[in-house]
Design goal:
Chain A: Keywords: Membrane, Transmembrane, Transmembrane helix, Transport. Chain A: Belongs to the binding-protein-dependent transport system permease family. The complex is a heterodimer. In chain A, 76% of the residues lie in helices and 0% in strands. Chain A is mostly helical. Chain A has one domain: MetI-like fold (Orthogonal Bundle). The radius of gyration of chain A is 21 Å and the shape is elongated. The two termini of chain A are 33 Å apart. By secondary structure, chain B is an all-alpha fold. Chain B is 76% helix and 0% strand. Chain B contains ten helices and no strands. The chains are: A mainly alpha, B mainly alpha. Chains A and B meet through helix 4, helix 5, helix 8, helix 9 and helix 10 of A and helix 4, helix 5, helix 8, helix 9 and helix 10 of B.
Amino acid sequence: MNAAASPLHQAVLWLNDPLNWSNPGGILDRLGEHLEISAAAVVLGCLVAWPVGLWLGHTGRGGGLVVLVSNATLAIPTLALLTILPLTFLGFGRTPVVVALAVFAVPPLLANAYTGVRQADPEARDAARGMGLSGGQVLRRVELPLAVPYLAAGFRTAAVQVIATAALASFVNGGGLGEIIRTGFGLSIAAGGGQILAGGALVAGLALLAEVLLSGVERLVTPRPLRRVRQGAARPRPADATGHA
Amino acid sequence: MSFRLSYRADPGNPWFSWQYVRDNSDTILAAVREHASLTGRAVLIAVLIALPLSVLAYWFRPLAGPILGVTGVIYTIPSLALFAFIAPYLGTGATTVLVGLVLYALLLIVRNVVAGLNQVPPEVREAAEGMGYGRWRRLFRIDLPLAVPGILTGLRLATVSTVALVTVGVLVGHGGLGQLIFAGFQNNLYKAEIMTGTVLSVALAVLLDLLLVLVGRLVTPWSARGVR
């Protein structure tokens, strides 16, 4: 046991081996898969959740539905969706993985779109109506621009979460950086400890990087006067109650 | 969902099968027990750590940022990575899963308890001070009781997400019902095994959530609306 270096030392050694980066199935390959799967899932989630959330917010109905969706997905293990979806009509391959991850991207996107439209100043809405704008025009020209900071907040939460959960795709051989961790566990802890730790660092680093970058984006699209006021509201509670399970 | 009560096993690969449940009741019960015990212990330990942290953040405002920040960063770390960080040091036992679960639950509890404490109306706080309540007495008699809805929200979120998170423990062989789901997937896509694990896991989450709502009703008889 003592012959082996500490896991941390092993991890540094493992990350310093260029072959571990460039090999087929190496870090670069896995990173590419990870980003592809995550991007597809987030896009799919946006396509579904944003129109629904904006519309529900516009009509002011369906607040209960938004909370229900959040709570329901919180209780479903990602592992379950990842294993069940390939057995449905979706078939094996990348599609079920993307769909499974998209399911968990929906709650933050939906809740923030809904809240974003709901919080629009009623006076602005009334003024727009008074100017003769139709319902669709009010949504497009008044409510949507006012909701942009919320959409960005939802996007950040969803994207970070998808990147985090994409690591679990490795359980169903779906690729991504999680494979590095799983391969490490395939060896023993003594032999694979370094690789496990290195894989964990890569996955965590990617998630934190996404969080930092997207927080920046969120700040950029939030008008300056709103930045301080909105601090509490930027993360509506149900939207943020997302797990990485 | 048709329940075949005949002795012979269904030749197909149904989503639900009593045959499977009956034949494997020992394995299933063991998985449920591990799942429930990991969840219970994790939430309990997380509460014991999170409550003092929340009170610190509430009493000393400058500490609130760092406490919420650190727990927030831990929460951002993907579950698989968190287990990967712990496993090389604690081995592939249930302890690794437990530590990971506790770290995850911390943020959810701390954030909601702090929010709950901050919602205590200033008039109430001042009235308590005027009556000569000290810091500790005010905490236990005024602040914490009034923060119960926040505490309960945190507990519910933490419990439900912990139940789902336990399944990731499959990584080190202690995933509770996740073991069934994963074994079913590897075992030639045995749908009944996957589905049994999934349904029981969701059911456990719902059951514990309802239990907490009930407890909330009991400890806050003054709130007519119950716990939200």
